[in-house]
Amino acid sequence: MLNNKYITGSCTISNGIVRKNGQMVFENQHAVLSNFLLSVYQAFKFSYPKFYKMDNLSKLGWLASEILLQDASLKERYKPEETGLILANANSSLDNDLKYQNTINDIPSPSVFVYTLPNIVIGEICIKNNFKGEHAFFIQDKFDAGFIYTQLNYLLDIDILQAGICGWVDVLGEEYKAALFLIEKSNTGQGLVFSPDNMDRIFNTIN
Amino acid sequence: MSSAGEIAIPDVYVVADNIVSPLGKTTVDNFSALKTGETAVKQHADEAISNQPIFASLFDKGQDFYEDTEQKYTRFERLLIASVGGALQGSDINVGDEKTVLILSSTKGNISLLETENNAPELKARISLSASAKLIAEHFGFKNQPVIISNACISGVLAIITGMRLLRTGQYENAVIMGADVISKFIVSGFQSFQALSKEVCKPFDQSRDGLNLGEGAGTIILSTNKKYGDNIKVLGGSVSNDANHISGPSRTGEELAFAINSALKDASRQASDIDFISAHGTATVFNDEMEANAITIAGLQNVPLNSLKGNYGHTLGAAGLIESIISIQSLKQGLVLPTYGYQENGVTNAVNVCSSAIQVDADSFIKTASGFGGCNAAVIFGR
Question: How many domains are contained in chain B?
Fold first, then answer.
């Protein structure tokens, strides 16, 4: 490792609970997923009309990224090309694929079809934040912190990126889980060293 | 050897490759077909994939790729098995070695099972790309957990870049990178809903281009850092960028793809003037080709000979970056840049040097570009 990197923030969303840096910041345990996501959006007073067009996967990832990046002021500290994203999940875009499949014999909708790719959630986060750097979407059986660490660590080490958002965003029906980590080279936040173990620890404290 | 900071970065060599497409089952067959000006794109009237006839590059209905006596594999997986098997045949890579990793690139994988199978909970697990990758890894005896990339139309190029990086960091010595997509009603109807399909064989960068053709195929590239391949062509560098503009339309300026091209050049320790030809994404949609020509111009590559193979293969989605890189590696070896099937007259604002006939070049290196939904762009450079 050429220099240290830090997990300067984290946001997890699962089982009706939103946590930022380990602290619960919102709870709504009894709603179906679409209503739950809307309740998060409203609770944080977000104002972003594109949110309503997104599928549940993009909504979940977008909300986690917005909560993660609140007060992070990345735009002031990094050029658009210096921030990147490495995300993964198990079910790709299958949740929306099933919805699109039901429209095929009727009138296939381009606005549903576009979400039949898992990397669209990365595109949505990039559009909102003007991130133009390296990014990749991987499919994994289960969260592989070591692999994600290796990918992002390399890009930070060779100075392709100065900051990265990495983690997991998965939705299938009413099952969902998001865990996003903000990784930077200087320790501006709670001071956790960027490592697979530290990501796993945060990922595993939620269900 | 190049270096970044204190870490010495090993060179990454191309060991072997394979293409299985409607034009042939080997790289050599495919390149020969392209040299004679063949296209696999033709009109298909098949209600199973489209209510109206479409122009696409599809395998013949009866054609199969692997004799699956136990009926264990889907059509998508049999196609991959044929391609990986073909590539391995031409190499001495030990797939059972812990230093070898398998990488899968696909956009939609087994999605056609939604059309043909009953929607049961087991189906959701069977459709996942992890299930396919695991079956193929077991089939060939790979030991490591496969890496899977699904990043729209840059998946194939991104898989090569990811493989290169996994080898550069020393985590693995060999990477077997496979990519495939098969065409189903799911995919066709989606592109139709965007009115993105051409009414004829597509015409990349041409004045009268009116959309893309879809295509089926698989490609496999095997990479290694082992010095015994030191005389082979290398993957010199690569880069990825995002437009941060629109999820289903390309950048208005092309600056972001230009950034990826420039970063790939830097990663490869090359200048724009070192690039001998460009294998463009060139889907033949109005917006993609316009954006790509802008990007190529911004990067100072507007006079470099360029081709798009979409008129020969259609857009093979998760396989495109692999198939088009493999053909271009052959071009590099044979000193022959192939023409752009369907191109006649410049149809982009910033004219680029589109090859309308095959040209002989004494080539040292080429760049392969790709862009896709989600605003993603990628560029990878191969060379001696």
Answer: 1
Q: Is the pLDDT of residue B118 over 90?
A: no
Interface of B with A in 224-243 (CB under 8 A): 239-243
Q: Please name which of B378, B165, B180, B368 lies closest in space to residue A119, comparing C-alpha atoms.
A: B378
In A, minimum Cα distance to B128 occurs at: A91
> Residues of A with CB below 8 A from B145's CB?
141, 144
The parent domain of residue B93 ranges over: 2-383
φ and ψ at residue A175, rounded to 5 degrees: -90, 130
Contact A137 B149 (CB under 8 A): yes
Chain segment B237-257, per-residue pLDDT in tens? 999 999 999 999 999 999 999
Residue A86 CA to its chain's centroid (Å): 9
Q: CA A12 to CA A14: how far, in whole Å?
A: 7
- Asked if residue A1 is part of any domain, the answer here is no
Name chain A contacts of B162, Cβ cutoff 8 Å: 136, 151
Mutate to test the interface with A, among B132, B150, B157, B192 (most CBs of A within 10 A): B150
| CATH number of B127's domain | 3.40.47.10
Per-residue pLDDT of chain A (207 residues; tens, 9 = 90+): 457 899 999 999 999 999 999 999 999 999 999 999 999 999 999 999 999 999 999 999 999 999 999 999 999 999 999 999 999 999 999 999 999 999 998 899 999 999 999 999 999 999 999 999 999 999 999 999 999 999 999 999 999 999 999 999 999 999 999 999 999 998 875 679 999 999 999 999 876
Q: Which two tokens stand for residue A199?
A: 């990501």
Distance CA A100, CA A113 (A): 6
Range of the domain at A27: 6-204
The predicted-structure confidence for B44-74, as pLDDT tens digits, reads as follows: 999 999 999 999 999 998 899 999 999 999 9
Q: Quick check: is A86 in a domain?
A: yes
Contacting residues of A for B115, CB less than 8 Å apart: 101
Buried b (16+ CB within 10 A) or exposed e, A49-72: eebeebbbbbbbbbbbbbbbbeeb
Query: Is position A25 within any domain?
Result: yes
For chain B, what percent of residues have pLDDT higher than 90? Answer: 95
Residue A170 — φ and ψ, nearest 5°?
-135, 135
Measured distance CA(B163)–CA(B235) in Å, rounded: 10
Number of domains in chain A: 1
Residues of A whose CB is below 8 A from B6: 2
Backbone phi, psi, residue A122, to 5°? -65, -45
**A108, A114, A159: residue with CB nearest B373:** A114
Cβ-proximal residues to B161 (8 Å cutoff; 6+ apart), any chain: B238, B239, B240, B378, B380
Residue A68 included in any domain = yes
- Cβ–Cβ of B171/A150 closer than 8 Å? yes
What residues of chain B lie within 8 A of the CB of A92, using their CB? Answer: 109, 128-129, 150
